[in-house]
Structures
1.
Amino acid sequence: MFTVVTQPARPVSDGSDRIPLASFAVQDVGTQSERLKGLGVRFTHGPTEMGQVTTAVFDDTRGNLILSNGDARPRGRASHAA
C-alpha cells in the first residue's frame, strides 16, 4: 500500500552546514577575498585562521559553495613572534 504525501517534507537542515563543492589553494586568502568581494562575490565564511591555514567560503551564484585556503602567513608577510 502507498501513501500519497501532499505536503513537502521539512528540510533536514537550514543549509548552513553544506559542504563546499570545490577547494582552491591561493597564496593569500585575505587579499583574494577582498578582491572577490569588490567584484560582488558573496562570502558565507571567513577569512578565518585555523592553525596554520586560513580559509574562506563563497557562493558561486549557482548555490554551490567554494572553499579557498592558504597559509595563515603567506610568503612575504612578516611573522609576529612574541
2.
Amino acid sequence: MLSDLNLPTSMPVYDRDSWWREWRQTALPVAVTLALLALGLANVVSRATSDEVEDGVLWVERAVGVVAAEISAPSAASRAGIKPGDRVVTRGAYDVQLASAATGLPAEGHVH
C-alpha cells in the first residue's frame, strides 16, 4: 500500500556543505546589492554636503600655470567664453584674469 504512493524511500539529508552552498547563493548577491546601495548613498551624501564651486572647467596645473583642460558645454565657463588652453595669469583678492590660449593676451572679461 505504501509503495503505491510513490514516496521517496529516503529523505534527503542536508549536510553542512550543501547548506552553505545554498545560503551562499542567496547571501552573496544580497551582500553585493547592499554594498552598492551603501556606496550610492555615500555618494549622494558627499555631493549634497560638498561646498566645492562647480564652474564647468577642469583646471590642471602645468608648467605655465593653471590651465583650463576641459570645458563643459552648458556651464558658466562656456558662457563666459573660457576655452581649453586658457590659463590663469593673475590672482588677486577679488579679481582673476585669464589669458587666451590663442593670443596669450587677457581674455575678454575678468572672472570675479
